[in-house]
Amino acid sequence: MQTHNKPGYFERFSSSVSKATGSTPAFIIALTLVIGWAVTGPAFHYSETWQLVINTGTTIITFLMVFLIQKAQNKDSLAIQLKLNELIAAHQFASNRLVNAENMTEEEMKVIQKYYLNFSQFTKTDKNLQQTHSIEEDKEVHEIKEDIEEVKKSIKKPKT
Fold first, then answer.
1. Would you say 108 and 116 are in contact if contact means Cβ atoms under 8 Å apart?
2. pTM of the prediction?
3. Chain centre distance of CA 124
4. S-S: 131 plus which of 24, 51, 58, 126, CB 3.0-4.6 Å?
5. Are the C-beta atoms of 68 and 14 separated by less than 8 Å?
6. All residues at 6 or more sequence positions from 2 whose CB lies less than 8 Å from its CB, including other chains
7. Sign of CA dihedral 107, 104, 7, 9
8. How confident is the model over 4-45, as pLDDT tens digits?
9. CA atoms within 13 A on the CB side of 55
10. Rounded to an integer, what distance in angstroms lies between the CA atom of residue 124 and that of residue 137?
11. How many Å apart are CA 88 and CA 99, to the nearest integer?
């Protein structure tokens, strides 16, 4: 039986604010406020106080939004990592060393990137565009996959 913990107040708040501020109505409200501020310029003789209002307001909002958006982004990023890890773990020929890729050094990632560049050259010879490859895969596994594809094709052909 699975249990789901209810997200905390700040988590719910940051998620809600992040979604709301990324909406079209939020942009329209912000644009309206800026236009309203600009229109009042002549009434306030473009004073330093008038300028300070928009500068202070936007600075405070930006400062707070950075933390709220980062909180929501961290959660989304973790969810994506977990989903990708599940896909990697569930696939027979996937490279399990990539399950923890977010904790690899940049140098380790560049080594794996070179493997994939080599695989891209290797796969250019494949007749089937859906053919997959992993880091651990060698020529033998590639041949097994080709054999499976041939069997699939022969099964799909109508018998005459």
1. no
2. 0.55
3. 27
4. 126
5. yes
6. none
7. negative
8. 667 788 888 888 888 899 999 999 999 999 999 999 999 999
9. 6
10. 16
11. 7
